[in-house]
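Example 341.
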Amino acid sequence: MSIYDLTIDELTDYFINNNDKKYYATELFSWLYDKNKRITSFDEATNLKKETREKLKNDFVISNIEIVTVESAKDVRKYLFKLNDNEHIEAVLMNHDYGNSLCISSQVGCNMGCKFCESGRRKKVRNLTTGEMVEQILKVEDESNLRISHVVIMGIGEPFDNYDNICNFIKIINHSKGLNIGARHITVSTCGLVPKILDFANFPYQVNLAISLHAPNDELRKEIMPIAKAYPLKDLMNAIKIYLEKTNRRVTFEYIMLNGVNDSIDNALELANLLKGINAYVNLIPYNETEALQFKRSNPLTIAKFYDILKKNNITVTIRREFGGTISAACGQLRSKKEDI
Ligand code: SAH
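Predicted structure in complex with S-adenosyl-L-homocysteine:
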């Protein structure tokens, strides 16, 4: 197992169980995550006693993933990683005016089957471990020489289908002795796994929740997102209302603009109606076209009209800035290219 799998509480338990010093957990966290330390061997953790270092070497590995390729364009770098079972995942670094944001993967493949999504063309092989998610950040910081200030879990995979590891991942990267990334700078995006949204309402970190909505009614949503068959909009919206009540936060709704599919004036009105009275923020996303799928992006005028209708109906809305269209930055594209499927 990787040392990056462990939260500071788990590491504390580990040292206590070994009759070692409890404060070693804080020391080791700092060796692993402090920008000036980031050890690659337990031997470098010089203030832990020798036997402890030997035991750590027996019980854990440090690194489990490696960067295979980096593609870059203006304000964006896209990373392809190889895992130690030879699977591939991706992460995308975006430079914003407010900081550097990393979009990370949460699974190898994905079982959600969204019709427009490149990642979903490959079924889930396995969940990523907590450590494999933490390491995406560490490796990118190392390669780019930048500090990641924001993390979005919007790469390959459905994070709420890997719920426990996602929660531990958040605990580690948010911890002041970990990567110290502010909870409000962390966003989890889900296609709408209702029971997990309800669980997440009780997760005591002020992270952001984004819902991949993409359709304003069940009929259309079922056509493009099979998950809508398991959790219809009524249940999804109910869960979101409960989440909002418990957390006092705002929820982001992602809406990909697909030409002739979900971008009509009626769709906009229906969406405005669905979100009326909810503390919602709508992100209209120009679709990233991909070779293997037939969907096309809406034209800019249609997107502008859609935006105006939401605005007029008092919905907070933005159109997502685009990054990296020329370098296969749509999630899943780099992996597909590499594995030729
Ligand atoms: N499974 C999670 C997170 C990963 S997908 C989820 O569904 O939210 C992250 C976001 O990218 C989702 O909103 C997804 O619908 C969207 N997406 C997938 N393919 C896309 C594409 N080709 N262009 C633009 N957005 C895409």
